[in-house]
## 1
Amino acid sequence: MTQRDLSSQHAGPDGTTPVPTEAALESWKEIAAYLQRDVRTVTRWEKMEHLPVHRHRHLARSSVYAYPSQLDAWRERRKPEADDHPRRVWWHPVPAFAVVLIFAMSLVSVATGRRVGAAGDAGMQVDNKPQFRQVHIATAVPNTGGKLSPDGEKLAFVSGGSLWVAPLYRSEQPMRTGTPVRLTEPMGAWDVGGAAISWSHDGKWIAFRALKPGTTDNPALVYVIPSSGGLPRQVTLTESLQGFWRYRMAISPDGGKVYHVVEEVGRPRIYETAVGATERRLVTEPDTEQPAISPDGARIAYLKSDAASWLRHPRQLWVKPVDVGDPVLVCEGRPGGFIRGPVWSPDGSKIALLVKSPDNDLVECTEIWIVLMGPDGRPSGAPSTFALRTNTNDPIAGWTGHNEIGLLFKGPQNSGLYAVPAAGGQAVQITDRWSTYPRWSPDDRTIYYRADADTAYRGLFRVPAEGGSRAEIYFQEALGIPIPGGGPSLSPDGTQLCFTGVRRSDVEADKGFPPALYVIDSRGGEPIRLTEPGSGAYAPTWSPDGKKIAFTRYENVPGERAAELFVMPAGGGAPLQISSLDDQVEGSSAEWSPDGELIAYLGRDNTLRVIPAAGGRSRVLASDLGRLRGHGLTWSPDGQEIAFTAGTRIWKVSRGGGEPREIRTGLLGRPGQIDWSHDAKRLVFEFDKVRDTELWLMTGFQGLKTAEATGIQIR
């Protein structure tokens, strides 16, 4: 495959077509009138079918304009049948827990049919506006969230490998937590957003997870402990699960049994295991997860995913007797969305769950549904829908006896790109939103990077090196860029960007997540594919002469996530493998040395390594660096040092190895991808400041739907 000159593919401020001299249509209303459609239709076209609508820089997103000639050209190219059956997809980056899960969490396209008891149109309207009250955390609760006790008087959480419980002082304004009590010594207790903590209905017992000895990311151990303190009792041992939502578990009202997920041939099922027992009992069918036990212990609510879909996001809520009985479909998420984390009300008459709406491109939930349940375990109506105060990706923190639903939200995000002197100093912020894979232009005046776009399937930008307004680099093909590992990498002459892309058409057709390498003019235009979809190419890096591109590819190795390094011609062609499994390639970051002799990369054994670009044995430059997934590295312009990120710091080490030296930034948080300026004076790096987890209580959720009110017949 040969490269093509893309200079004719860009010109205007949006990087797609030359700027017309005609009068512009200055609002959504004018654009809709010109196309003889309503505003909702044209906004959908802009979002899903790249209707050429532009936005004024420095103004709000709603300040839009369009040129009639561009609209006419778009309408000529558009297929008529695309009007009537739009497909919804979305793309968004998230922190790396496991790369397969990141991809699955980053692109969704779910098609379902209407069922009796499904949400249908009932879920489309928000019933009323509930009230939200913040609980001020008076102690340093970490980013893991927590779980409220059934009476709403305590908060259980994990910190420093221990389980803690803090009281809630309800009489104070504002409501706050008190001094926490540590229930366990450090024992590897683990949690994400309260997903791995469960209270018994009487509040006397707490189940929690802990890391399997010798691991840093496998919370396979389950314990039960009295909420007043005591000796933890181990319940069960399972292997690593795919995604933290599957680590959610439930405990029986008397604290004697735990309900947890076990994966068998990649398909999750829920089992019951009694405390002290060695046998476990199967409770639910395949493709089920996130159990919740009713207050009387008689029924279990759980979520079920679509086994026929590669993405397998839960979209159905089911309830069945814990012992013997048939499951009942309670409700079903709308096409293009998913549901999470059912929680029973204290009296067992309702179930609440979080919902990702298909009407947005976020990976987070924006709504909460509440379903009335009858005494026979069947729904009494369609879900009532309430808007959350903001988006969340954390589970419901509990439903208290005060008729409050606990919700966890992340505090204000303060992440972006920062620059710091290469010798260290006070870092200066360049972008004010999530940004990654920064790359200096050859003259050090511009920084190219990956970030969120206003619509799905885009995400490359450039910004002045001193900060300012960002400019998007537009594609002429709908491509999503995975994180971590997607790039971009800038060619040595600054004219092209190489990145990993996934075609929207492949995802919509449920073909899985087939990535390929692409190059695009650094000013925008038509992406040129270098490798076949599904070939699995990540972390691209150009050779210093611009003639080759190195990249990583993940291999199917039992029991581990292994990658290898490859080198191929920059214009396309057969790749050459230059590493072996012994070289411990991690896969999310690699960079060619300025002299072209070596490629540096991060090892899955927590090392920084270099390997000859022509192939050969790798050499360890630094070790014992901690988990490096999502971190980055960069060579100094003279090729004598490598700067890299690990944990919460930036380090540098000489080409020959030795003791790493810290590059101080004056920031507290987590650095990620990094790049060294060509004049050797500065480093630009991705940085995510520590975000607090906030606990809020939702009240005033009235107007719940019944079968009589909705006219829905319940079987």
## 2
Amino acid sequence: MGKVAVLKLGAGNFEEGFPVTLRLSEDTPLHLILEVDGQLPPCPGVWDYYCQWQTGYNQIAKNLRLGAPTGQVVRVSYTEPADTYRQTALNLRKQLNQWLNSGYSGFQAVRDRLLIHLNPQEEIRFIIQTQDLKLWRIPWHLWDLIEAYPHAEVAVSSPQYEKPENFDKPRKKYVKILAILGNRTGIDVSADRQVLQQLRHAKVTFLAEPQRSQLHLLRDESWDILFFAGHSQKGKLKINQQDEITIGELKSTLVRAVSNGLQLAIFNSCDGLELARDIADLKIPQTIVMREPVPDLLAQEFLKYLLNFYSHGDSLYSSVRESRERLREFHELETYIPGVSWLPVIYQNPAIVPPTWEQFHGVSTATASKSSHKHQWRWSWYLPTSIFFLLVIYTILRSLLDPNANTNYHSFMKNGYEAVDIAQDKKNKLYFNNAFINFRKALEIRPIDPYAWYGLVSTGLNLLQQRQEAIPITKNTVQPPIPKVTLSPQPQPKALPKPNVSSSLKPTLEIKPSLQQLQKLLSTKQWKAADLETNQVLKRLAGYSGNKNIPPSTIGKIPCQGLNTINQLWLKSTPQPRFGYSIQRSIWESESVKANYKSFVDRVGWRRGNTYMTFNGLTFAPQAPLGHLPWSGWMMRPDKRIREGFGLFMQHLKQCKI
């Protein structure tokens, strides 16, 4: 919410002063805060300096509206030294601030009230309300009080105003703009056309040098913005090479356009204040004009800046201020023609609050905010509900498509609760780990099961509390259940043959230099890197230098001593042997697997359902299934060549007595 400060200047002159009334109100909606009467002191120097600046400006700028094509270097000829024009502009600024900051008792109270109630963070619309055209011409934005507020901008207004009838029209999907490109002799209106065509959420209708009869579109259709570019002089618009038209001749058409929803008129032409005076009685909400003849380059740049800021969310007043400041600081014309950036002026109907660009084609800010909160509340309810039903559908489909889903779920839950019971008795973190894995796998089958969630959360909390190292498992300790998935009906697996681990625990194990990196990785529990290193060691031992994995034909070339050393390093990597070739061979030859490749990969966790794991999908942790590592990627894929190669590898392990 911003503020509106209306300075109403009564009948007077610069020689005798002006009576002033300050009306300060809250903006949107208008709510009166205070009203103060005062008096501006005499100061003839303000108008004298303005006339000096105006004379110098016209001498420099009179030909620029008809010259300087876009992109051409500006060339200016001075009748006096350039510094004289700059000094005149500075003198006008200085004289204006001396007048408004003089400490004159009649106006000091007005100024003090402004300082008390204005906030630099708010947008402030200053409206100079007067019938005196001279006061309209004064560059009020140079007042240091206004410059001190970064979101403040000045407009002029007539003391008599009225809100248009039937003004509130339904919003449209886009901003409707009628662009009249009048007599373009010597000026480049194509740049204005290009700017308008690039506007977002806008539909622009162009009338290029129209005949009078074509202006009926302004009356017959509903428009948000009226734009005119071309020549104008003494209140007359040159609509084509021959015809001129006055605001008075368009009075009934403009009144109808306002009643149809016209909110903003932009006259990018010369002598705009004459036009603003003529349209004062037409109830047009906002009009932007130029206070003096305007150079073509400045007219183009101002339109580009104004519509860019306005269409991207800035208010109309902020857009005008930002455009003027950019013209002053970044455009070369301000260097050649001091004060040229002062030209844009807003004429405001105080009964209307200027709309934003979004309000032209959408709902008001308050409605948009309310709608946004409403949709946000809806999503906060719809999203979790949708996720819940999707999980229910997933659970049902999983049960229908996988006949073993229910069996596996109950198996995981049973193993989880058994591991929890043992963990609570033995105070062993390893069992909590195992229980956590079982509950997680149960949730993969039934993601909304409350019992599985309870088990997962409770074991997770216990894991956080159990910071001590896991107690070594002795042969008298009950080993935690290993997660297993029953993918097809099969007899219960019998006890595995005891793996050949006796030699693996000998402290006199000789490690060759080629295996020292593998030993280091396993001793530091870098399982993933150790698996990759194992594959590279196998290649070196087999004498295979290709980039791909070891072909089955080279398996028999791997020395038994090297295989045995690799196996021993993997067996020693965990307190209780879980990884290694001897464990994998024991599972391969077990009654439940019987040298069947698919049964083996299911047992060691290399396949889930019908999906074979990739390297990144493996579990590189001590809690992985028995025999899960080392992987050696050439064993993984299910094609015939790989199955045969894996069988050859198991036979080679047997020949090496591993």
## 3
Amino acid sequence: MDPHRIISCRVEPDEPLICGEKVTVTFHVTIQQEISSGGRIRLHFTESPYYAMPPQYGLAVKGFVFFSRIQFQADVPEADGYLTVASEFGNAVHIDLPEGKCFFTIVCDQGLQVGDRLTIVVGDRSCGGLGADVAHHPTYGPWRLVCDVDREGHGAFVAQSDMPDLQVATAEAEELLVRIKPQAQPGTATDVQIMVTDHFGNHVEGYQGTFTVSLDKADNPVVKSIQLDPPDDGVRCFPRSIIFKEDGIHRVVVQGADADTIALSGTSNPVDCTRRNDDDDDLFWGDLHGHSHCSDASHPPEFFFSYARNQGFLDFCALTDHDTFTPDIWEAMTRVAAETYEPGRFTTFLGYEWGGDFEQSIVVLFKNASGGYYPSYQKKDVGPDEFLRLLDGEEVIIARHDMATLGKRWIPIDPAGTMERLVEMHSAFHTSETCHGPLVRGELDENNSIQAALADGLRFGFIGCSDTHIAMPGRRRSVVKFPGAGTKDRFYGLTAVYAAQNTREALFSALYDRRCYAATDRILLDFRINGFRMGHELQLDGPRSIEVRAAGTAPFVQIDIVKNNQVIHNSGQGAMDTSFEYTDSTQIVPNDYYYVRVIQQDGGMAWASPIWLNPL
């Protein structure tokens, strides 16, 4: 007998688990060697073809086959993620769920004899529970059950071999997403990406089919035929595949062209084909807040940036893990950000989510994807004032996050506004504009909203972020789990930036100048006052000409011009594309501010960064 083989295990059901579904999974554990009273059996789900906890990151044990970080529980049979365990011989056992960890442990209160069998049920529904959610993540295939056993209960865990795999797969194809770069010069070829997804938003593994591509004008014929092959796993970019000959706003229509794809069709986000001068800014899409398995998410930084570029179809992306990792991991993350940066094609930023002695998390973004790492776990009593002093001299931008948890007015932390240039308007977890908005979640009220902070004199541009914990920046929607509040289907967030080019220098400069807007989808939006674009601080006199251009991914409910938190004009009802001008002839009051809010019929939104005015 193998002296290290203490248990054996088989799993039910045999068929694959579908990403996003609620399931019940049973592990049948047979005791091969006696386990003493107080012994422990620890289970987690961490090994996949793409995720095996590389040693250079020094990771804690975690796993994301299930949403175990916030969902496993052993107290409420009727709730999600209920875990149970029973001994065939009637020995007393119980489940231990260490706080903040993604594994669970079976504690053998009376010991277990050879031949005893444990039945461990994940997502037990026998008492009316709903099951356990299989996590959304971008990797499919076998996930190995990892099991360690401490026979004596003294902390000496022994890894068990020959554990079963959990097969993870996608459901049937249901939706076709079409993405295109937001701007194109007439007569110049541009890229198109298509992604076939299932009901849960997963790109469908092994998908194969033929599609036709045409423009959205009624008199335009089919211009191209394209093919998805099984190695594409349901997503592929077709470089320089479309040419727009005319000025204006365009969209691309993709339609299934064979028996397997005929039911699928999709229309792209809008593309602005207005002719531009060489010195005009371009528009770039990105995500400025997301996590990897260097803190509490899934998949390594390499995968995070790869997904953003290739599946997410983003122009730039920032990795901002919680500040719970060690300095050597920070150095490794810095190397990855440098290796994956391609100026002009894909820009990587690096930072972290600081969680010190403050009631709001602070997202830190470094211009050159490297900078001072000052983790709050080393100095738990450091407040934001001292933290900003540590960052003094760095080329850095900070943005507050998680407004819905504050419950009171914001504390000014950067009165000069040299670092706090942005604020997270929307993520998959929160929308923080106002407590009356359609996407609000949490404890948001008039005191802790972004509108309240603007009224108190804080000045920042608006960004949208995914806050992804599944390494999928650029995903359109995701089912998000909230502790104690079930699940919600939420838009991921995006940031649009008007910049001279796709480089760190140009994008960081544009973000610092607040030439950006937050969005839930790839909505085109331009907002100016007297010709000055969003983000400016101006001194003016007399009437103000407010110009708005917008093109949606769904018809508009309305587009609001907001002045000092009050809607002063709206337009665009029912349109997909619109441009309008409004003149405000009222007297300018010191610290007036204006911004634009877009609301679509599908629930999508966008928020242009404010413009601040003072009288001459």
## 4
Amino acid sequence: MNDYDTLAQAYRKTAEKPDKKYSILPTVMSLLGKLEGKRVLDLGCGSGFFTLPIARRNPEIVYAIDNSQKQLRLLPKHKRIVPFRLDIFRDPLPRADVINAPFILNYAKTKTHPLHRHLRRGYGGARHYDEKKGTQSHRQ
């Protein structure tokens, strides 16, 4: 796993890359759908690339979760953002309606890792994106 405490400032600069800013961000935000009044987990939030746009969609709360304290210190301040330093592969996660986890599943050691099962099961009504079919579903 990368040491994001060491890479925090350099990684934050990747938010300006055109592919992230103009392709990945709009795609992920579209997949997340309406967030008003929902509880959202932003797993592997880093310095808040997705966290702030999520918070601007008026969810009840956005749990910004990362294992890097330095990344969490770079999060923008927003009344709906609550940062947590957790190991998403070991620590219990807050209950949520929607989970955003676009850059973290590659760190799971196996496809049977509990986080994969957690996301496939539709934790708390999470949206699930099927990469092979190119479709999304909302699970209760």
